[in-house]
Amino acid sequence: MNQTTNSEQTQKAARIPTITPPANVRQTSEGTYVLEVEMPGVAKDKVEVAVEGSELTIVGTRTYPEVSGVALHREIRLGEFRRTFEMDAAIDTSRIKANMDNGLLRVELPLAEAVKPRRIEVQD
Amino acid sequence: MKLIRYTEPETFWSPFDRLVSLREEFDRLLEPTLGAFLRRGTFNDWNPALDVHEEKDQIVVIAELPGMKKEDIEISLHNGLLSISGERKEEKAVGDGQSRRQERFFGRFSRTITLPALIDAAKVTATYKDGLLTVNLPKTEEAKPKQIAVQAE
After folding, report:
1. ipTM score of the complex?
2. How far is the alpha carbon of A20 from chain B, nearest alpha carbon, in Å?
3. Which one-letter DSSP state was computed for residue A45?
4. S-S: A73 plus which of A1, B4, B52, B118, CB 3.0-4.6 Å?
5. Does the pLDDT value for residue A107 go beyond 70?
6. Which chain A residues are within 8 Å of B28, Cβ to Cβ?
């Protein structure tokens, strides 16, 4: 019967609030997808970009500045940023690049060479 | 025979707890479609989230401003009001393609708060790191809490 109590507790501990960060997705004329995800308070080494099958998962752990005293007003939601994107099958997952700049994560997802739009010269 | 072991009340089943978790589930359900809308209030308005803390000798204001340039943030102090404003510009270098999803806001924003204590304007400092703006506003001497010792007769 202890089992039930324990699982209740684990469930409770695992319930870290998750924040879905706003994102922009753009596709350049070359076909490369550019993904921008807003994660204020997340340092470069606190963000994880993982590819699993056709899913791209982004997880960011935020660091809140050290403050003492009383919080008079709070709007910033504390928790973990997490979002999963379904990727286009044409993306070359081995060439995905990511960089973090002032709380904005930018991921570049280029298409595989084989599927890039190509112009074929007409020969005589 | 006891079927369930007694546990401390806070880890015990509470209907309120279930309600909170239900609410969280509901929020999570709405988040992908309505999240950005609910957070912003309107589609064309950007009100960055802001926290205010009061420490013993200073007020600390923290604002969420991801993906900005330090130069584009303006902070002003006037008559006990603190204003944080600025403009976030959309990067033009990648503007040649087609937009597939647009949830981020670009353009001007402004937020003003009434400071809860008298501030020494000359000593105000601000730092911008990882998309968070932290403004430290030291209190004036008069506004700091003081201990008054009781004199013995």
Report:
1. 0.78
2. 7
3. G
4. B52
5. yes
6. 18, 20
Q: Which residues contact A33 (CB under 8 A, 6 or more apart)?
A: A25, A26, A27, A88, A91, A108, A109, A110, B100
Q: Does A71 touch chain B (CB under 8 A)?
A: yes
A27 touches B: beta carbon within 8 Å: yes
**Nearest CB neighbour to B32, from listed A20, A29, A76:** A20
Q: Which residues of A touch B52 (CB under 8 A)?
A: 71-74
**DSSP letters for B75-110:** EEEETTEEEEEEEEPPPSTTTTSEEEEE----EEEE
Tokens 């950007």 identify what position?
A: B46
Q: For the segment B85-95, what is each residue's pLDDT rounded down to a tens digit?
A: 999 887 655 55
Tell me phi and psi for residue B31, to 5 degrees.
Answer: -50, -50
Of B49, B54, B65, the CB nearest to A75: B49
Q: Which residues contact residue B9 at a Cβ distance below 8 angstroms, ignoring those fewer than 6 apart?
A: none
Total number of residues shown for chain A: 124
pLDDT in tens, B59-93: 999 999 999 999 999 999 998 899 999 998 876 55
